[in-house]
What does this fold into?
Amino acid sequence: MNPLVDVHAHLELIDDCADAIRRAEQAGVVSVIANGMDTSSNRQVLGFSNKFKIVKPAIGLYPADAVTLSDEEINRELGFIRSKENEIIALGEIGLEGKRLEEGMQQRAKGIFVKLLRLAIEIRKPVIVHSRGLEAECISLLEEMKAKRVVLHCFCGGIELARKAERLGFMLSIPCSISRDKYFQSLAREISLSHLLTETDSPFLGPKSGMKSEPAMVKRTIERIAELKGMEEGEVANNIYANYGRVFENGKSNNP
Ligand SMILES: [Zn+2]
It folds into this structure.
């Protein structure tokens, strides 16, 4: 069985998490990166990683949630993230949000994102980035801050910006909605396999509209990418697993 990875899931939002993890293992998934979004899910994510062998924790502050916290609360959570540096595999979910926040709040979210990026660089962790509606700003900021190990999750900024991200060495993780979403299909076709990863954003972005996703479904994404690139599934899976290793495991000594 080929090793599969899900680099972005919200396990605390899945009803039958233990069953979903079992199904993922049966499908060949060897790593599910559970992403925290706020103070409570960050702690839940760490709990899941203690409970399930294939679950790796990423903790962070989702931009739309982060702006509701006071400066003091933000600093306290940054301290918490730092205190877990030996347990976590990445900082995520962090980033910018252009659709759900008005402009003043977008600026506040940007300030928090910069703090999180600085911390990631300091403790040498990769970052899993949300960029909805502010994709160009997000890429410029990551470039400016010289972030290296970057995963742009569910990147919706269009092919040209995706190519820029690729040139900068960033990774693009493809959700299982690729089965119904022409844009993700074009992303998978156009971006080189060496810059692609698979994710589910579980329980969101299922393969069919309105259907929930779970980590086992990365298998379908691999099948779809293989079809679009005219490659063997095994070859796609192995390459994506190697990309995962480069970003999350081998690169520990590099800056993010
Ligand atoms: Zn997410």
